[in-house]
């Protein structure tokens, strides 16, 4: 399968210092390496994945405006790594030592020194409303509701499925599925929750649906930092279904999200990590935060590395969005701090 080009413009890629050194494609001029807000005049170069009324084309996707993004520069750190540690031979040596002794390859390379986010608001353990409250944002439009029947879906791959154990019944199921000739990710959430179940299917669905509303509204999906989400629906599953038999006996149909499938993407791990990938992850997290979304679960399993070296964040079923009180400048800073520590100190397979 041919490698799909990233949707990110050279201007966006220029925000990553390492990627900015990579040669630009002949058809795109390299933009200056500076921070800039998302432009309301930018149009996505993404081609519509399907020609179907249920799935919106690029012309129907929300376009970002200046009021749809937060200024995250107050806690954003950008600096140059030590060039001696960028050599492929140095990284290859560190990776070899990891496989011999289970150490993160960057843990033994003092590329960045100590975590630079530790010094930002270090006197605060809890948010101060006067300092960390975020400004209000334009509310996003509701996520499109689709009309998709079970008979229109074909299972391609079971990525994660309920196994029927009681302790896992609050989890989600994820499938690679074919719908009208195109491949998508189908994410299912049980539509019922027991009494006292704080984070069961309906709650996870509400969090992820709301997060995608903000991410689409802020242009984060259009830039390729997060997969496209084409809409939601409730999927009525026949009693004698095959690949969805785990939810066939539920009294109410599960909630479903139809999400972009990213071919040939793999989870970030010590076997494929690079300085460029780490900077791409931080850039992705920054744009997610700029849309008013706190991911709350940024780990290697939710960080996909594409063949072109760009990073995509997935799984927003634990995310918080504005105007929730837990989305503030301090919590966003803590998540960036966690990203740095995960990549340079703690990452494991």
Automatic annotation (TrEMBL):
* Extent of Basic residues compositional bias: 31-48
Pfam families linked to this entry: Kdo
Q: Name one GO molecular function term.
A: ATP binding
Residues covered by region (Disordered): 1-67
Protein kinase domain residues are 106-349
The record's listing under SUPFAM superfamilies reads: Protein kinase-like (PK-like) (SSF56112)
Question: So which domain of life are we looking at?
Answer: Eukaryota
Entries under InterPro entries matching the protein? Kinase-like_dom_sf, Prot_kinase_dom
According to UniProt, the name of this protein is: Protein kinase domain-containing protein
Which organism is this entry from?
Neolentinus lepideus HHB14362 ss-1
């Amino acid at each position: 399968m041919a490698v799909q080009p990233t949707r990110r413009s050279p201007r966006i890629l220029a925000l990553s210092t390492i990627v900015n050194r990579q040669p630009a494609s002949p058809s795109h001029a390299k933009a200056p390496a500076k921070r800039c807000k998302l432009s309301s005049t930018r149009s996505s170069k993404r081609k519509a994945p399907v020609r179907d009324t249920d799935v919106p084309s690029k012309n129907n996707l929300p376009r970002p405006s200046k009021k749809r993004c937060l200024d995250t520069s107050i806690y954003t750190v950008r600096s140059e790594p030590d060039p001696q540690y960028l050599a492929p031979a140095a990284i290859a040596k560190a990776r070899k030592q990891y496989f011999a002794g289970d150490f993160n390859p960057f843990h033994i390379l003092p590329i960045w020194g100590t975590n630079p986010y530790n010094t930002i608001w270090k006197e605060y353990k809890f948010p101060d409303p006067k300092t960390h409250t975020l400004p209000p944002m334009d509310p996003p439009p509701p996520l499109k509701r689709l009309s998709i029947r079970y008979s229109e879906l074909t299972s391609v791959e079971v990525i994660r499925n309920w196994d029927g154990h009681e302790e896992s019944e609050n989890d989600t199921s994820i499938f690679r599925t074919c719908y009208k000739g195109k491949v998508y990710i189908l994410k299912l959430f049980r539509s019922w929750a027991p009494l006292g179940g704080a984070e069961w299917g309906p709650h996870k669905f509400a969090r992820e649906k709301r997060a995608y509303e903000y991410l689409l509204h802020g242009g984060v999906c259009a830039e390729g930092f997060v997969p496209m989400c084409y809409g939601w629906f409730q999927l009525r599953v026949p009693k004698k279904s095959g690949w969805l038999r785990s939810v066939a006996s539920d009294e109410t149909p599960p909630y479903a999200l139809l999400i972009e499938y990213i071919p040939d993407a793999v989870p970030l791990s010590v076997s494929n990590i690079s300085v460029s990938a780490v900077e791409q992850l931080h850039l992705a997290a920054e744009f997610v935060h700029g849309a008013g979304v706190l991911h709350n679960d940024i780990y290697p399993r939710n960080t996909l590395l594409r063949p072109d070296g760009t990073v995509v964040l997935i799984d927003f079923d634990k995310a918080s969005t504005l105007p929730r009180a837990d989305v503030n400048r301090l919590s966003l800073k803590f998540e960036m701090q966690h990203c740095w520590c995960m990549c340079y100190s703690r990452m494991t397979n």
